[in-house]
Amino acid sequence: MPAPPKLHHYVPQVYLRQFTNSSGRLTAYRKDDPNNPHPKLPREVGAQNNYYTQPLPDGSLDRGLEVFFQQSEDRWPSIVDSFKKDGQLPEALIEPFYDFMGSMRVRGPASRDAAELVYAEQVRMAGEIMERRGDLPSPPTGREEALSLKNLAISINPHQSIHAMPHMLIGFSRVLEQIGFCLALNETDIDFITSDNPVVCFNPAMPEDHLRPYAIEHGPPIELLFPLTPKLIIIGHSDWAGPYSHAHFRTMRCNDRTIIRRANRFIARFGYREIYARNRSHDALVAKWSATSPIITNQAFRTEKGTALVNQWVFGPRPIKPKWSRTQ
Q1: Count of CB atoms within 10 A of residue 316's CB?
Q2: Which of 5, 32, 213, 290 is in Cβ range 3.0-4.6 Å of 294 for a Cys bridge?
Q3: pLDDT above 70 for 144
Q4: Residue 44 DSSP label
Q5: Which residues fall within 8 angstroms of residue 75, CB to CB, at 6 or more apart?
Q6: CB-based contact 215:269 (threshold 8 Å)
Q7: What does DSSP assign to residue 106?
Q8: Where exactly are the structural domains of the chain?
Q9: Which residue, 76, 279, 251, is CA-closest to 193?
Q10: In whole angstroms, what is the distance from residue 242 CA to residue 180 CA?
Q11: Please, how many CA atoms are within 13 Å of residue 89, restricted to the half-sphere of its CB?
Q12: Which SS3 state, helix, strand or coil, does residue 179 take?
């Protein structure tokens, strides 16, 4: 059996191929440089070396998670073909569809970076408690401010965020329990776009200019968007929840360009590092929303019993994570 590849795609190639043009390429926009998109093959984007590799105590490397993801991706072409042909899924593909969508919600940099930032803040909070108790040695004279916990850059072993993915999946499954689904066919001349964070979820009652990503902690209303191809998208909504809503998909034909543009606005905003499209017709849209991405914010509060850490998702500039070094 050949060794698993070192280059791990957090946006599966099999997913991105649905968004390619006749030459087999897609337009890749980087949010850091939105005015300089490039035609790319699916294998050239949404990937990082050893992104899912776990080091083992004996010094070897475990690439089993990448193998697991590859196995789940094998069913994706059949899932999309079934949606295209029948607007529904056979029973054997229903669970693989939700497994794939769940993995797309948690496996990318948007989720993993958020987990690492939360862990870093937990370390900082624990250090500040020890600092206040006098459990830490005093810093050298003149270096008190520089070495204060509030000013230190704390890096987290990126492998730790892999362990957060099952917990994030549990949270996402609770969202899915509250919504039903519709397969929408885009009959306009505007294509759907997608991103490296393609599962979009929000409270539709919030005005767009005050929208917070994933701000559904208090329950419905909930809306979900998941583009499948430039002409197909899964829409989830709490208004459609019901006993059979996960096995039977509503279907809708859409020839309203306003609805397509709305979906693309959300998809562009939820993109983390990159946006993908079949052509260059989305330049202005991507540029408009390139300055912010879904990020996690953390705030510590003193309480009678100690310190509480509160985090929430917002749209903002992507934070620069301190580089992790194995020598730390």
Answers
A1: 13
A2: 213
A3: no
A4: G
A5: 93, 96, 100
A6: no
A7: H
A8: 7-112+157-295
A9: 279
A10: 7
A11: 24
A12: coil
